[in-house]
Amino acid sequence: MTGCVRPACGADCVDPPMSEVSTTRYLTRAVQLTVALTVGAVFIAVCSSVPGPGRAGRGSWAQHKASRWVLRAVGVRLSVHGAPRSGPSLVVGNHVSWLDILALSASAPMRMVAKSEVARWPLIGRSAARTGTLFLERKRLRELPQAVADMTAALRSGSRVQVFPEATTRCGGALDRFHRAPFQAAINAGVVISPVTVQYLDGDDAGITSAAFVGDETLASSVRRVLRTPRTTVQVHWLRPIPAIAGTGRDHVDRARVAALAQNAVARNLGLPVRRPDGVAAVPTVGRVLGPDGVRALAG
Predict the structure, then answer these.
(1) To the nearest 10°, the Cα dihedral for 93, 97, 99, 102?
(2) 201: how many CB neighbours lie within 10 A of its CB?
(3) Any idea where the Phospholipid/glycerol acyltransferase domain is (predicted)?
(4) Tell me, what's the pLDDT at 162?
């Protein structure tokens, strides 16, 4: 699907697995997933039950452990290259699947920024709330300043905060332009940005789209497809941190610049084009400031 630059990915962007596991193996994985989710939820609840300033940190650590259990239960192998910078940072990367959250959390403890719908998912929603997840109402733009303020507060408290700046999932054939607002939180808190990429591979290390969660598909159907896939590896690559340092005195310029730098770093690592609003696939280049009144955020 390389080069898929349509405005939104749909069911036709996702290829079914070349082969499927046996019914017995599928049912075994389904049972393992139920057990892992239940045990993980209890573990998170216990670790985050003690009130105090370290509650979110304990919850994030518990989620880090539980995410590894869930990935193992659904038959997904985790391969991590590099590591995020220690201390607070804004973690940003591409978004393909609900598995992204598990993969990133399994690679390092962090607080997630998730769409408000996640709060209503069985077991997962309540556990996410206990780990300090910041829920965002994507369709209510007037709440965006408060969301940025919450992210800033979490970063200043020493947390690692993860957000998907594309604000949607794609099949993995192209990258959507990164929204700039989340990067303001990093600038406000004076922390680095940690770009990261997530890729899904089969048993032969070839890219697959069966793990993608796009379009109008339900979570249940996506989970079933993952359970039926014989071998899936999720590969996480941590890239060089980007300092979120304000240099122009204009917030909108600074966040545009660091958003472009992060976006291009992710696109280059994945070897993907960036989808422009006009639907043209663009080769990522480095953003640069063009003077006191603006920025050329070159995403191609």
Answers:
(1) 40
(2) 17
(3) 89-201
(4) 95
